[in-house]
Amino acid sequence: MSMTVLSVASEAAGLVKTGGLADVAGALPAALAAQGVAVTTFVPGYPAVLAKLGKKPRAVHKWDALLGVPARLLTGKLGDQPVLVLDAPALFGREGGPYADPSGRDWDDNWHRFAAFARAAADIAGGTVKGRSFDLVHAHDWQAGLVPAYLRLAPFAGGRAVPSVMTIHNMAFQGYYPAEVFPKLGLPPEAWTVDGVESYGGVGFLKAGMQLADAITTVSPTYAGEIRSVEFGMGLEGIVLARSNRVHGILNGIDTAEWNPATDPHLAANYTATTLAVRRKNKRAIEQAFGLDRSDGPLFVVVTRLTWQKGMDVLAGVMDHLAGIGARLALLGSGDAEIEQAFLAAATRHPGRIGVKIGYDEALSHRLQAGGDAILIPSRFEPCGLTQLYGLAYGCVPVVARTGGLADTVIDANPAALSAGVATGIQMNAVSHNALAMAVSRAVDLYHRPAEWKRLQKNGMKADFSWGASGAAYAALYRQLIEEQA
């Protein structure tokens, strides 16, 4: 059974990226093509996206007033896969990031921007564009959360009904806005209920998607269980519990063509699991880039947002311990100003031992995975996480908190796992100073046992975290929903 799916995402790697959502949205089409699923990706027309469509992109539809603003639908390609782009200059034609202005402040009209984006997606799925039809809509995160609401409660006039999937990449970002925006969304009055888009007295974009989609997915099996609790559900655990038979945990994969140390063009030297000694050249390159002392001792790396969720406040407090036991650290990231300053201060205290670069650099993130001995990921919660998967693929041993996708993908180097030869990294039960300091010490101890360390690296590198199994799981879910709709 062949299927056509409209994937609705606010970012996609190859067009625009701020985090893991883009990697997933960018990789899913190729993974699903192998399952007989033809995916078209729909993204907003940010300036960076429009620039990649070329000078004269083809317009296939226009709205005179899409939630009050003129807009066009443009076509393009993401690799070999088709892309649709919403060109609405009043909403997306501005400098800054996808969600925030150049100073980092969220755009005040994000509710309008992404409501219009969702309205357009529902129109497209319903058949507003002649010659284009879809069997199912896959909405990603809060920015696409209103898509199931429009499909269910305000469908395109005369359009066909299609089922929808709502994927939660991170429950912490819900798209919550005050009640006064509701009349401007173009939804019927009956949508203003707890069974519709109302959430704690306001409009909840993610909540609406979870309530009204035909299925909810999260990006790892453990996270699908965690969000049933108050601790991880963040106010929406009631919906998860009420719709538990519609909640599925499907682990993210990685793009193994983009993330392959044997062919990665960003590296100082390419290598495989049988030529691990070559990694030393990449280590030397990282030392030089971050101003670190040259050494064959353990080099930890960090590539992340510097936020509370990622446990970076705790890691900043462990820097003196890390340097004190003979390790070094290279960090690439940005985020909370206080955390940034804490790491910069640690680098000042430990010159040659700790190097920090504030910002993000895609090529450098590849080089860090190839040159680091271990990557630190002490997240308080992590729906899936891709960074640890990149680490495993590159022989950069993950040191992680036991939560979400980190728990699902990293096998702790406890005595039993080491004895059985199956360990791939180090897990910690709590995100605290003592637990993280102990995990770092465990990693350093293991590093000085070269045979066991090499086994960890090789185990990680041979693990299969491609999109194959996950693509098959999504395709099976799509088929089930389409059959139910028939």
What does this protein structure show overall?
The protein has helices at 20-33, 47-52, 89-92, 110-126, 147-153, 205-212, 221-226, 230-233, 237-242, 279-290, 312-316, 319-324, 337-349, 362-371, 387-394, 404-409, 415-420, 433-447, 450-462, 468-485, and strands at 3-8, 37-44, 58-66, 69-78, 81-87, 136-140, 164-168, 176-177, 198-199, 202-204, 215-218, 247-249, 299-306, 328-335, 354-358, 374-377, 397-401, 426-428. It has 486 residues and is α/β, with parallel strands linked by helices. The chain folds into 2 domains: 3-253 and 467-485, Rossmann fold (3-Layer(aba) Sandwich), CATH 3.40.50.2000; 276-462, Rossmann fold. It has a 9-stranded mixed beta sheet with strand order 3-4-5-2-1-6-7-11-12, with helices on both faces. A 6-stranded parallel beta sheet has the order 15-14-13-16-17-18, with helices on both faces. Strands 8-10-9 form a 3-stranded antiparallel beta sheet. Strand 16 (374-377), helix 15 (387-394) and strand 17 form a beta-alpha-beta unit. The two termini are 14 Å apart.
Structural class call reads alpha/beta
**How many DSSP-defined strands?**
18
What's the CATH class label of the largest domain? Alpha Beta
CATH topology of the largest domain, by name, is Rossmann fold
Q: What are the segments in which pLDDT stays under 50 over at least 5 consecutive residues?
A: none
Considering DSSP H and I runs of 4 or more, what fraction of the residues is helical? 25-40%
Q: What is the number of helices?
A: 20
At the fourth CATH level, what is the homologous superfamily of the largest domain? Glycogen Phosphorylase B
Strand order of the largest sheet: 3-4-5-2-1-6-7-11-12
Beta-strand content bin: 15-25%
